[in-house]
Structures
1.
Amino acid sequence: MRIKTISFIIVFVPFSFVFAQKVDTLVHINGNVMTGELKKLQYGILLWKMDGMGSIDVEIPKISTLKSKKRFDIRLQNGSRYYCSFDTSAQKQMVYLVLATGNMLVRVDDIAQIFPLKRSFWLRTSGNFGFGGNYSKGSDLLTLNFSTALNHRREIAYYDFSWDTYYTFQGDSLSSIKSDARLGWEHLRKSKLSYGANLGFGQNSELGTKMRIDLTIVGIYDIIFNSWTRFSALAGISMEQEYPYSDTSPAEYITGNFALGWKVYKLTKPKVWLEANIQYLPYYSSKNRYRLNVNLNPKVGLVGNNFKIGFRTYFSYDSQPVTVDANKEDWGANLEINYSFH
């Protein structure tokens, strides 16, 4: 009898755990009811996992209501953030947020983001990898670019790492390199305003920068944040150390950091992603010097929402390069294939 009881516990507990994970309910706008597991909602797409079918993408306009007893980090378009679960509403495209103080009825399309609170380290992590290039036979010029972005989300904090490198070859020799890497932290507040810090590394042989290291403290304000777009403004201050290609010693600077960023996702086919930003850095410790960076990365979906193809473009300007006689501007555009996960 004792052996049978132990065997029952060993077998029963894992299976009850598995089935408990897929008891969420989604009511489609056409009236169909789907049971499964709500994974997340971001940029207008709800990731829904079903037994037998795997994970599917459900666009916000197709959701009538939701139900889940699990707790989520939920952000509305007005910037409000709640840590709660969901309950269904009889009204179409409405859902209840189950709060400790009672239920609050909200429109489904007012929800900008949903992230589960209790997930493994791996499931809290998302990112993308990209590879691209272009070649000109007449000039025997080859440009390759590699990009990576990794994000890890906690209840009140957001960590990210990004790396972007361009190699330009003239014949068999490397003629220029542009590389940027950044590790950042952002404190998530229950409003449109957040703050954070990041550590960056940069190199641009065209602008005469052998290496740049900076530590930046920033404040971020979401001007628009909804299910299909995020338009934000950033302001901060940086401490920089720059190394020229010449034999002169590295220089240290204090700079401002002002930027606008825009991310947009188009729901209808063809599915389109667009990321753009413009950054202005005035040098407070160097008279009349400033830098300007512009990035524009449009993509279109190839397979689902994971594989994309598009262009990665940039423009960089330095009014007073740290290396004498270096160019003041640099730009590039490459065709890129991109894969994203989670």
2.
Amino acid sequence: MKRAAKLFASLAILLSVGLFVSCSSTKVEGNNQEHLVMATLWLQNAAEYRALCYQAFNLASEKIESIAGKKNKEGRPQAVIVDVDETILNNGPFSAAMILKNKSYGPEEWNKWVEQSSAEPIPGSVEFLQLVDKNKMEIFYVSNRMENSLGPTYKNLVAVGFPVKKENMMFRAAGTSDSKMERRKLILDKYEVVMLVGDSMMDFTEAFEMKGVDASWELADKIRSDFGNKYVVIPNPIYGPWESMIYNFEHGKKTEDKIEDRYNHLYPMTE
């Protein structure tokens, strides 16, 4: 989507929710989504964000080309596992809409966005997966989007140029947890997974599940040599398990309690 189209969409949302818009400023008072503004602005406007994505996929492409076709002891075919949201599809417009409407994430609003099949690809992601496909590696899309969103997501992926097979889209079944461990295991049983790409540590290994801040830092340090090799991380400052850690995994907390938790996890300089 061109920047002019993005601006038009933003203005339409502002008008629809009755916010005052002037030539120089937009005034929003009492917005419970205010904490997401800077992260969403960075994702939608910063050249540095695009550069980091290109950097990640450039490194990943070099790695793929260096290992493509290499035989393993078991003779299993090579495969790459990718997450979807904020890894290959950009949901910045959804985040922006929720801020402007002063709404928290919810399945109804999220499903409306998914049904549009209009998310743009993360910079560098299409070219990377086309390279993986060219090198005859199997690509698995392991996402925590629900299974009932597979159709519109498949339409979205195809429309922007991803090489995708429906049978390789492993989405979350209703009534199951958000852990990807079992789905990854099904792939690992048949393939040599040479790379995993995601925006969350839990896209790579279940070892990060339900870990607090300190424990997750220690684990990231322990496996540091895997990053840029087997694991490729795409930046996502808007949401993720890191936020759940701050709330002690208590997602039902009141807004004021979440605000307090966020401030309690700021570590200022000493005076």
